[in-house]
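Predict both folds.
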Amino acid sequence: MAKLYFRYGAMNSGKTTALLQVAHNYEERGMHILLIKPEVDSKGSDHVVSRLDLQRKVDISATDDMNVYDTVAQWHKDVENISCVIVDESQFLTARQIDELFNLTVYENIPVICYGLRTDFQTKLFPGSRRLFAVAHSIEELKTICRCGKKALFNARKSDNTFIFEGSQVAIDGTAETTYESLCGSCYFEEYAR
C-alpha cells in the first residue's frame, strides 16, 4: 500500500534539496513523478528553488480551491502513469487538500511525499502541517542548526533585518524585505523578549 509521508523541518534544513534528490532518483529509474507546490508560494514563480540554487519547474500550482485528488487522478489517467506525487511547501495546502493527498495513497495507490514547515514565525502550526501530523503514515524531521549551534526549531521572521513577531501567517521568504532565520527555542525567545 502507498503511504503519505511528511518530511518537515525549520527553514534551511534542506527540504527542497531533498525533494529534488527524490525526484531525480525516481526519474533515474524511468519512473514519473508529479511535482506540486501551492500557488501562494510565489518564491521561484513556477519552480521549486533550493538555497543551493537548484531548481525545477512544477507540474501543478495548487490553488486553495483546487481538488488535488481529482487533478492528480486525471493526470495519472490522461498524461502519464505517476509513480509518486511530491509536494513542496505543503504547509500552505488546506486541510481538505491534505486529506485528498491521503486519499490518493488509499484509492489510487500512489505514494505522496510532502515537504514543509511545521510552524510559522509565531510558533503556530500551519493548517496543512496540522493535518499532515494527524494523517501521515510517516513523519520525519529534517534538522538544521541555530546560530548558537543547537538544533533549530523555529522560523523567526525579519523585516529590514529586524525580528518581528506580528503579522500575517504567510509572508514569502526573500520578497518585500522579508527574510527568515532558523533559531532554537532559547534564541527565538531571547529575540522575542527584546
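Second protein follows, with its predicted C-alpha cells after the sequence.
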Amino acid sequence: MKYVMGIDLGTSGVKAILVDENGKVCCEASKPYRLIQDKPGYCEQNPEDWVEQTIAAMKELMTRQPVQRLHVEGISFSGQMHGLVLLDEFRQVLRPAILWNDTRTTAQCTTITEKLRDRLQKITKNHALEGFTLPKLLWVKEHEPDIDQKIDMFLLPKDYVRFRLTGAIHTDYSDAAGTLLLDISGQTWSQEICQAFDISLHICPPLVSSETEVGTLLPQVAREIGIKDTKVFAGGADNACGAIGAGILSSGHTLCSIGTSGVILSYEENHNRELQGNLHLFHHAKKDAFYTMGVTLSAGYSLDWTKSLLAPNESFKELLDGVADVAPGANGLLFTPYLVGERTPYADSIIRGSLIGLDSRHERVHIVRAVLEGITFSLNESMALFRQAGKEIDTIVSIGGGARSKTWLQMQADIFQTEVIQLENEQGPALGAAMLAAVGCGWYQSLEACADQFIHQAAVFAPNQQHVDVYDHLFRLYQSIYTSTRDIHAGLEPYRSI
C-alpha cells in the first residue's frame, strides 16, 4: 500500500494525516503552538515553533505507523493565509511572524487604498484589509526600519515550514493571492504595486502551482522523521485546500468552514465576477480555477472564548449539552462574534462583540446557543452577498468545528435556508493537501477523480421551515446591531489598551 501525508499549518496548531491510496486516513497527529499577543490588536507567532511542531507531528505519524515509513510517496501542505515571515540574506528569520488576524495595520490599509484607488481592485481583485500581507510589509517599513533594511525574502507560513524541510523557496498562487501583491489576471507579482510602495520584486518568492513538485526532504530532516525518497509538493492556502478536501471543485459548489475564523467559499471558473461587501477572490489550489470567499474573523474562536469563560474544565461536548433543547432565538438573546473586529461584510477592525437581550432568566445554555447562532448569522451575511451577486446556492458542504455538532449543522441549514452536507471523514485542509500529493504522485489523473475516491457524504440536513421563519426575522435584527453599536465601540477603543 502507498501513502501520502497532508500537513495543515493552522493558527493554534499543526495537523498531519497519513492517507492511503484508497483515501483512508490511517493516522493523524496534532501539535499546538502559542500565540504572541503583546499589545491589543497584535497577533504573532514564532516560525521556529511551526517547524518544530510540524516535525514532531510527522514523527508521531511514523512512530504510530512504522510499517508505512518506507511507503510515503508524497507530502503536501496547507497553511494559514496572509502571515508575514521575513528572512535576511542568510535565510534567517528577522522577527516573529505577523498573522492574518493581526489588526495593527489600519493606517497602512488606508494608505494603500488612497494611493492605488481602483487599480488595487483591478490588479488584485481585493480590497486592502488588515489581514493581508502587503499592509504588514508597510507596517514593518514604517515602524521597524532596521529590520526592513535586512529583508531579502518574505514567505507565507506554510512556505517557510516547507523551506525548512526541503531547502527550497516557493509560494503557490492560492497563497500568493492573499498577499495583495499578486496580479491575479497575469499570475505574476505586480510590479506596479511593488513600485508604488518601494518594495523590491527580489523579495517576492518564486510562484508555482499547488500541485508542483518542489523537492524532497533534506537528508537530516528525513532521518529525524523516519522516511526517505518522498516527493514534496507546494500545497495551498488553507481555504483552498479545505475546498479541495470538501470536493468544492466545480461551479455551483459552496463550502462553510468553521475553524478559528469562519469562511463561506464558492467555486469560480474565472476571475471576472464583480464583488461587493468585502468578499474576496483568490486563486484556487486547483489549477486555473478561483474561488470567492467571505470571512468571519472570530467563528470557532468565539466558541473557544465562551468555553474559556463558562466551562474551562469541560469538553466542547459538555459545553453544548442542552443547546438542542433551546428554541431558536436563545430565549431572546443575540450575539455578534466581533471579538477581534470583523471582515465580511464590514471590514472593521474597531467593532467588538455584543450580547444583546441579557436578562436574569438567561442560563449558560442560552448564551452558548446564542453564540452558535451569532457565528452562523455572521456567516450568513456572506451568503446573502453571494445571493445578491446572482449565485445559486442549493447545497453547502460544512467542515471544521461547525460540522461536528448535529445541532449546529441543523442550525446552519435553517439559517442558510439550504441543505447542509456533512462529510463521512471530514479532515478539512489537511485532506486537501494530501489529495494534492496524491494527484502529484500520479495516483489519480485529476483532483476530481481523487475526490470521487476520497470524499463521501455522511448526512444531509434539510431546513426546518418553522425555524427558517424565526431565523429570517432574527437575522434582520442581527444585521441592525452593527450600525447601532459601531459608534459605541469606537468610543470605547481608547480604553482597551488599559
